[in-house]
Amino acid sequence: MARQLFTPPITNPRFDPNQSIRESYKNTTSSMQFQPILHEDQSGDEKSSCDIDEKSACSETPDGTKSPTLTKQEIDDALNGVSNLPPELSRLIDIFIDDLKQPKYVRPLSVLQLSSLFQSFYIKFDKASFQHVSSMTNNGNYSTNGSPSSFLAAKETLSSGLSGIFARSRSSSGNSIMRPRRSSSLFSNESTSNSNNVTQMLSPEEIKRQLRINELNNMRIEKYMEFCERDVFKKILIVGTSVSSPNKLKNFKTHQLQTFKVGNLFRNSTEFTEYNKLLNDKILCLSKLSIMNKINLIKFLSLNKGIDPEPKFEEIKEILFEFTYHSISPCEKIKALLKLHEIMTYSQEMSNDDYLSLLIYYIITIVPRDIFLNAEFIRLFRYKKKLVETESFALTNLEAALVFVEGLTKNDFSNEMQDKLTESEGKILECSISSKVALPSNNGVMHKTNGNGSGNMGEIVTPTIQRPDVTRSNSYDGFRTVFDSSLKNIIGKIRSYTPPHPNAVGGNTVHNSNSNSNNNNNNNNNLNIPRSSSQLSIELINRDTLEISRDVSTSSSSQSSASLERGNREFTGDLTVGANASVNSIEKKELQKSWKKYKGYKFEDLTICELKDLFEIYQKMVQ
Amino acid sequence: MNTSVTSIKLVLLGEAAVGKSSIVLRFVSNDFAENKEPTIGAAFLTQRVTINEHTVKFEIWDTAGQERFASLAPMYYRNAQAALVVYDVTKPQSFIKARHWVKELHEQASKDIIIALVGNKIDMLQEDGERKVAREEGEKLAEENGLLFFETSAKTGENVNNVFLGIGEKIPLKNAEEQNNANNERESNNQRVDLNAINNGASANSGCSC
């Protein structure tokens, strides 16, 4: 086909059927052409790239024709009503969290494995959202402009044409759940009247209307995905990632419920927490050196080329704190990060030398705690399909800034400055963090890897993440060997967010025994002390004691459970178990001795007394 | 009729002040200053180009050119389908650096990455500037390494668009059928060429190549 179409694709909100027809019948003039992309100006601070689709929807075609796209007003009307997830989608989140807390893993999940579970869930949720929105649309609930609900079914008889494209236009996957493709003339109200193969053409207005509906649906799904991320992590925040006493929740203060500690998710991945701690220390150290004028950051980062970072300092500080402390979901955090880049934009001509230098400057001067874990949190827990374009770039910039900081050593500074360093500062700035801690790489990327393959951390999980989404039904068998039985030290021991039952732990242990794990805890179900609650509740009380629990939880699972087992016994002072055991074993030994007493005897030689003795032994054996 | 849009991640490499950002700004804002797709200054920009029946959407990632940031570049060119290695025709040092980037990209970037070698600032040759890197040198390097080669002026816009069109033409676009299938796996009309499909097994399985 030689003809060119210079209109945007039909799935594009700027598609203009009139222009398309016009241009299709024009002679080809060139085979290449730049395609102008015109957008209406964005209003306010709605500049985050989470809303890319929304933005592109606010556009008009170059020739000024009203495009079949949505006005700001229409978008607002449609989306303002959506402030929460519909119950059926919300239920999916409940099920997911419930599923996570099932004690089906013997070994605590690493953050990479956890991330993989989340990503699988997002994909499923995306599909479910699509189905939900489609079904709502087909029921006429969302039809715009008062169009009758039969419109879709009636007009979508072009099953291999437009409707096929429409159906594809929002298709994140669809390998397990069948999507209700709106292409089936079989179910159309008018299918019977079309039996003579007369295909009803869509009028331009109808196409526009259809595209509108389609676009609105996409926006709704976008919105639902955002809510999904938000709600999942809010729920995790409420139920916690640990097992403290069930009543603890009541004592939480409001501010505690609003602060999500990203570090909790990384608890079982010591490399990350260790790296984070060292990076925190290094940033703090550099900050102090800067405050004491031992280093001149502006000069060091070559920032004095017309960019003065000071005027925006407070604004940046606020958004960095929003990023690290006050936001919960990955989506909120990435929005904060984009906002940060927006604030840093002094001019539209700024190159990445400027952004990166500024970012490093602000990180060192503001010292946002746990910024590394927050960055990794986004990388691992933001829906991967959405972590593209500006989002991906902004996150890469942050990671690059952090890698730069972790790699700073005293040798990067002047000799004069090196002489001024105290012993502890010198130690912190002695070498790069990546030479001390090797991070498990996800697809072998984002960080400078430790040249020494084995690394200091010993066996680090292989980068390949198993995706357990395929058969993640209620049957545990498929995964038992992979993730084993207990999420106990992390999500698996999330307290129930339904009012916790005092015997919840007992319930968990029943699950454990069902899953036939090697968990020694099963032997002592009657010991009513949750194995990890003592350990993890500490963390809820004081964040700074993270290391304590981490140290415990990171020793190998069997070891830790065994040692905790011992600990529990000692703690309860329950010696009867041991005492009973020893009495029993003595008796057993005596019994064995006695029945062997008559080993070489013949029946004829036994006296009545001996026969009586034998009978007594028999009685004991029976008992 | 193929109406799909293929996204291409393109990374800019080159010494500081060779005009990387200027080239991209010229390309993006040449005739269409109205472009309001989300951007981050001149550090992250997008531009769509229609090539034959395909629309290619360039996602252009700038990298910091300062030497101190050189070790961070792999984080940026990871999963890039195309790279622009820029040097200044009046600065021989920048050409040496360009050689290093080409070598590094061959060693560490995606196997099938398309690299364009770009000698910038040719406008300076008409303004009493002295050429320090011969065109032949650039061509030779490009030929030896299988690169596209262009000499440009971001200032006048000379040859700038051709750089991107050249890259767009070399990008292995999937045929229509594949795209239809791929569309089932991805959202909307926004596809990505994934040169790392094999390495990226996890994402591929999930039907998401981003």
Comma- or semicolon-separated keywords:
A: 623 residues, mainly alpha, Glutathione S-transferase Yfyf (Class Pi), Chain A, domain 2, 25 helices, B: 210 residues, alpha/beta, Rossmann fold, 7-stranded mixed beta sheet, 7 helices, 7 strands, globular, Small_GTP-bd (chain B), Vacuolar protein sorting-associated protein 21 (chain B)
* Main CATH class of chain B: Alpha Beta
What is the terminal-to-terminal distance of chain B? 25 Å
Strand order of the largest sheet of chain A: 2-3
Based on the structure given, which CATH architecture of chain B is correct?
3-Layer(aba) Sandwich
Overall outline of chain B? globular
Mean pLDDT of chain B: 82
Q: How much β-strand is present in the residues of chain B? A: 15-25%
Count the E strands of chain A: 3
CATH topology of chain B: Rossmann fold
**Can you count the helices of chain B?**
7
Count helical runs of chain A.
Answer: 25
For the report, how would you describe the main beta sheet of chain A? 2 strands, antiparallel
Instruction: From the alpha carbons, calculate the radius of gyration of chain B and give it in angstroms.
Output: 17 Å
In angstroms, what is the radius of gyration of chain A? 32 Å
CATH superfamily of chain B: P-loop containing nucleotide triphosphate hydrolases
Question: Which stretches of chain A are poorly predicted, pLDDT < 50 over at least 5 residues?
Answer: 1-7, 25-31, 36-68, 142-195, 243-255, 443-489, 492-581
Order of helices and strands of chain A: HEHHHEHHHHHHHHHHHHHHHEHHHHHH
Distance between the termini of chain A: 92 Å
Give the mean pLDDT of chain A: 65
CATH topology tier name of the domain at 262-439 in chain A: Glutathione S-transferase Yfyf (Class Pi), Chain A, domain 2
As a percent range, the share of helical residues of chain B equals 25-40%
